[in-house]
Amino acid sequence: MKKLLLSTALLLVLGLSFNSCRDNKKAEDSIEEAVEATEEAVEEAGDAIEDAVDDAGDAIEEAGDEAGEAIDKAVDAAGDAADKAAESAKEKVKEATDGN
């Protein structure tokens, strides 16, 4: 009777130890998968941030180029208007001096 009881206890202990080891491996696998998923999410977030920064830099460059072109056009237009005003003033002075 003693041997039967001890044998049964030994089998229960061995059975429980194998089950708990199996559970630990599953837990370790789950932890590893979670770490890998987190690493991937961090990499994707970093890539998205990098892309956003690049896009913002491109937009700033384009805006600067467009502003420069607008300034150049305004300067040219102001120069043309000043030239026309000077020519008009010369003509008025000539008309005024020719009329006397």
Please name the defining characteristics of this protein.
coiled coil, mainly alpha, 1 helix, signal, 100 residues, 98% helix
Overview of the structural elements:
There is one protein chain. With about 100 residues, the protein is mainly α. It is built from one helix and no strands. The longest helix is centred in the middle third of the chain and has 98 residues. The mean pLDDT is about 80.
Low-confidence spans: none
Structural class: mainly alpha
**Nearest-angstrom radius of gyration?**
43 Å
Beta fraction: under 5%
- Number of helical regions: 1
Distance between the termini: 147 Å
SSE pattern, N- to C-terminal: H
Main β sheet profile: none
Say how many strands there are: 0
In quaternary terms, these chains amount to: single chain
Mean pLDDT: 82
Layout of strands and helices, then pairs:
Elements lengths: L1 H98 L1
Keywords: Coiled coil, Signal
Provide a concise account of the structure shown.
This protein has 100 residues and is mostly helical. It is 98% helix and 0% strand. Keywords: Coiled coil, Signal.
